[in-house]
Design brief:
Number of helices: 23
Strand content: under 5%
Helix content: over 70%
Distance between the termini: 38 Å
Radius of gyration: 24 Å
Strand order of the largest sheet: 2-1-3
Shape: globular
Structural class: mainly alpha
Length: 475
C-alpha cells in the first residue's frame, strides 16, 4: 500500500498530471502484483473496460452548464436576481448566494460557478466598499454547492465508479445542498446586521426600474403588440419581468432533469441529454426574445454556432481529462486489491473493534486530510477501493447505507475545495479577484463557511434521514 500510494503522491507532488501519476503507479503495481509482463500487456484492455456508458451523464451535465455559460445566459440570470433583491443587509453577498444556488442547479462545475459569480459580482462589491471577508467568502462557499445540487458531475462519477444508483445520489444531494445555501444566507444577513460596516448600505441604480415598462412583440418586422405601463406598478413589473424572462426558463431545465429522474421517466443519462436539449431550447428562446420582444433595461442573450462550438470544445477538454483519470484510477484499485493492501488494511481496522459510527467518522477525517493536499477526483479515486468498491470494502463490512455514505463523501469533498493549502476554489478566487489580495485573506474569508459546512456534515452524520428521506421516495 505504501509503495503504490507513495508512487501516486510523489508523482503528483513533482507536478505530473493526475492521470499520468496513476498510470505510473499502475505500471509498478501491474508489473509486481498482476502477473508481471502479462499484466502490462492487458493493462490497455483494462483502461478500455474502465470507460463505461454510465459515465455519459458527466459529459452531458458539463455541456449543459457550458451552453449557459458561453451564450451569456448565466450572466443575464444573475443580473435578473440582482434586480429582484433589494433592502437586504449584505445585498450583493445575498445575490451571490441566491445566484450561485440557481446556477448550481444548471451546471455540474464548481469552478465555473465560482468564476462566473466572482467575475460578475466581486468588482461591484469592492467598489461599494464591501470587506473582502464578506465579499469573497459567500462566492467561494456557494460555488461548491454545485457538487451537491444536481446536476453534479462529481456525484455521477462517484455513483458510476461505485456501481450505485446515479439517480438516487443526485436526488439525495438536493436537501443538504439547499440547507447549506440557507445557512450561508442566514450567516451573511445576520453578520451584516450585527456589523453593517462589512457591507455598507447603498442605493442601487434603479433608473431602469423607475422607467415606464415598455413591452412590444414583433414578428416579420411588424409590431403586433405594444404597451407601456407606468404609475405605481412600474417598479414591481420591472423587478418581476426579468425573473419571468431569465430565471423561470432556467427552472424548467432543472425540472426537466430532476423531475424526469424523480418520477422515473428517464434514466440519468437520458435525463442529462434532455437537460442539454432544454438548455439549447432556452438559449434559442432567449435569442428570439432579443429580436422579438423588448422590455426596458433587458437585453437578450447571444446564441450562435460559434458559442455552441466553444461550449463543445470546453466540455471535451474537461471530460477527456476526467476519463483519463478514471481509467488510471480503476486499474490502480485493481493493483491495490491484487497486492493485498485493501484486504490487509481492512483487517487492521476490523481488529480495532470500531462501531459503524466510529468508522464513518474515521473515513470523513481521512477525506478531510487528503482534501487539504489533493484535488477532489484524485482523493475520491484514491479512497474508493477501501471505502466502497468490492465485498471487502468498509461500506460492506460495516453495513453502512451507501447513499448516505456517498452524500457524506460529497460534502467532505466540497469542504476540501476551501481548505488550505491546496483548496482549489481558494486559488480560483485569488485569480479572479480584481484587487491585490493575499492568499491569507482569501483563506480567512472562507473559514466561517468551512465551519458551516462542517456543521452540516455533522448534522448528516447524526441524522442520516436528512440525506436519505428524499431518495427513499424513489424506492
Amino acid at each position: 500500500m505504501l509503495l503504490l500510494l507513495g508512487t501516486v503522491c510523489v508523482a503528483m507532488f513533482t507536478g505530473l498530471p493526475v492521470a499520468l501519476a496513476f498510470f505510473a503507479a499502475n505500471v509498478v503495481g501491474t508489473a509486481l502484483f498482476i502477473n508481471g509482463d502479462i499484466g502490462l500487456v492487458f493493462m490497455p484492455l483494462e483502461f478500455h473496460n474502465a470507460i463505461k456508458f454510465s459515465l455519459a451523464p458527466i459529459a452531458l451535465f458539463l455541456w449543459m452548464g457550458e451552453i449557459l455559460l458561453q451564450t451569456g445566459v448565466a450572466f443575464k440570470a444573475i443580473g435578473a436576481i440582482d434586480r429582484m433583491i433589494s433592502k437586504v443587509p449584505g445585498r450583493l453577498s445575498v445575490v451571490s448566494i441566491v445566484g450561485g444556488t440557481v446556477f448550481s442547479s444548471l451546471s455540474g462545475s464548481t469552478i465555473a460557478n465560482t468564476a462566473i459569480l466572482g467575475s460578475v459580482l466581486l468588482p461591484d462589491m469592492i467598489k461599494r466598499g464591501y470587506q473582502p471577508s464578506i465579499a469573497m467568502g459567500p462566492i467561494m462557499a456557494v460555488g461548491g454547492i454545485a457538487m451537491l445540487i444536481p446536476p453534479s458531475a462529481l456525484a455521477v462519477l462517484l455513483a458510476s465508479i461505485a456501481e450505485q444508483s446515479v439517480a438516487m445520489l443526485l436526488i439525495a444531494g438536493i436537501i443538504p445542498g439547499l440547507l447549506m445555501a440557507f445557512l450561508f444566507f442566514a450567516y451573511v444577513v445576520g453578520r451584516c446586521m450585527l456589523n453593517p460596516s462589512l457591507a455598507p448600505v447603498y442605493t442601487p441604480d434603479e433608473s431602469e426600474i423607475d422607467m415606464p415598462v415598455k413591452f412590444s412583440l414583433n414578428f416579420f418586422g411588424q409590431t403586433q403588440f405594444s404597451a407601456q405601463y407606468g404609475g405605481r406598478h412600474k417598479r414591481a413589473l420591472n423587478r418581476i419581468l426579468p425573473f419571468l424572462v431569465y430565471i423561470l426558463p432556467l427552472f424548467i431545465i432543472f425540472i426537466v432533469v430532476v423531475g424526469s429522474i424523480f418520477f422515473k421517466l428517464a434514466a440519468p443519462t437520458e435525463a442529462a441529454a434532455l437537460g442539454c436539449l432544454a438548455a439549447l431550447a432556452a438559449c434559442y428562446f432567449f435569442k428570439l426574445f432579443k429580436n422579438k420582444i423588448r422590455i426596458s433595461g433587458i437585453e437578450g442573450a447571444e446564441f450562435t454556432l460559434k458559442d455552441l462550438a466553444h461550449s463543445l470544445m470546453e466540455t471535451a477538454k474537461i471530460n477527456i481529462m476526467i476519463l483519463f483519470i478514471i481509467a488510471g484510477s480503476l486499474v490502480f484499485s485493481q493493483a491495490l486489491s491484487n497486492s493485498g493492501a485493501t484486504e490487509g488494511l481492512l483487517k487492521a481496522i476490523t481488529s480495532l473493534k470500531l462501531t459503524q459510527f466510529q468508522v464513518v467518522i474515521m473515513m470523513m477525517l481521512v477525506l478531510l486530510f487528503l482534501g487539504a493536499f489533493m484535488d477532489q477526483v484524485s482523493m475520491l479515486l484514491l479512497t474508493l477501493p477501501f471505502f466502497l468498491l468490492g465485498s471487502s470494502s468498509l461500506q460492506v463490512v460495516f453495513n453502512i447505507d451507501v447513499i448516505w455514505l456517498m452524500v457524506l463523501m460529497l460534502i467532505t469533498m466540497e469542504i476540501s475545495l476551501l481548505t488550505p493549502p491546496f483548496g482549489l476554489l481558494l486559488y480560483v478566487m485569488k485569480g479572479i479577484a480584481p484587487f491585490d489580495v493575499s492568499l491569507g485573506q482569501v483563506i480567512k474569508s472562507a473559514l466561517p463557511f468551512i465551519l458551516i459546512e462542517l456543521a452540516v456534515l455533522a448534522l448528516l452524520i447524526v441524522a442520516p434521514e436528512v440525506a436519505t428521506w428524499l431518495p427513499n421516495q424513489l424506492r
